Amino acid sequence: MQPARPPTWLVYPALVLALLILALSQRTHADAPAPPPALPATEGAVLAQTTPFDVLSVTRVRRRFGGETGTAFSVGDGGVWLAGGELASDCPHAALLVGAGQGVVAKADPALGLLAVLTTPGGAPALPLAAAEPRPGSLAYVAGFPHGRPGEVALRLLGRETLTLRARSDPRAPVLVWAEIGRTETLAGPLSGLAGAPVLDGEGRVVGVVVGEAPRRGRLYATTLQAVTQALAAAKVNTATGAAGQPITADNYGLAADDLRRSFRVTPTVCARG
After folding, report:
1. Which terminus of the chain has fewer CB atoms gathered within 10 Å of its CB, N or C?
2. Structural domains of the chain, count
């Protein structure tokens, strides 16, 4: 006796549902929502006084002519930050911004390869480091300040390349190559200002730091995790390794990035006038 076949009217809906589930599981594009609206001036003025920094260290900051905005993130609860190496090598007065025209001048150690370590009076909770390098195909998320404004990007790891650097004692450095698969809804064009931003895995742990991009190819270049640990070791900075941070997914990375910026764990940087 042969088993009864399901009615034809059930077969097609089941097939459509299966294809939809397959498409969602293999999606390659994941845009984040638009950033939240700016705070009213009066509310922003009040909130600007609530920062993890010593209130006496917050001062008026004027951007140096020609200086671009970058990104830094906390790697030490007492006021230790990682940023792009150019901020230390090309800027005599680096500063972290905490509001419009307000910031904290940071002491920058000599550039450690592609990275720089900044120190400030007081700081935000440190982001944990991953325990192992990510594998090709892994997803990651970047929270920072492209064009000097809040923004984030979703990435998929392609592999490694050797980046040729200019005007450095070691002109070649291994980097991770990431393909962009999503970004803030209103963010367009190149991602200048994202240099120095943390690349975070699904557990909110740092797996690299953004150091460059190829806009036409939709690629971001980031340091390896080994380069991060070596830079922190050279600066004698201890940070949590392997601990879980805030979970991040392709569905919530916009909100997770907002949380990191609001808590000042990820901040914009500028080269300030002396």
Report:
1. N
2. 2
Reference 193, options 254, 145, 263; nearest CA is 145
- Within 13 Å, how many C-alpha atoms sit on residue 236's CB side? 1
| Cα–Cα distance measured from residue 14 to residue 20, given in angstroms and rounded to the nearest whole number | 10
**Tokens encoding 173:** 């450095």
Which residues, including other chains, have CB under 8 Å from residue 65's CB and lie 6 or more apart?
none
Q: Are residues 191 and 99 in the same domain?
A: no
Q: Which CATH number belongs to the domain containing residue 216 in this structure? A: 2.40.10.10
99 and 200 assigned to the same domain? no
How many helices (H) and strands (E) in the chain? 5, 14
pTM over 0.85: no
Helix (H), strand (E) at residue 163: strand 151-164
Residues with Cβ within 8 Å of 117's Cβ and at least 6 positions away in sequence, in order, are 75, 80, 81, 82, 83, 88, 108, 109, 231, 232, 235, 237
Q: Are residues 256 and 143 part of one domain?
A: yes
Specify whether 150 is located in the same domain as 260. Answer: yes
pLDDT digits (tens, 9 = 90+) for 2-24: 455 555 544 455 554 554 444 44
Give start and end residues of each alpha helix (H) in the chain: 8-25, 41-47, 85-89, 225-234, 253-262
For residue range 135-163, list pLDDT tens digits in order.
Answer: 999 999 999 999 889 999 999 999 999 87
Q: Which domain holds residue 61?
A: 51-119
Largest CA distance in the chain: 90
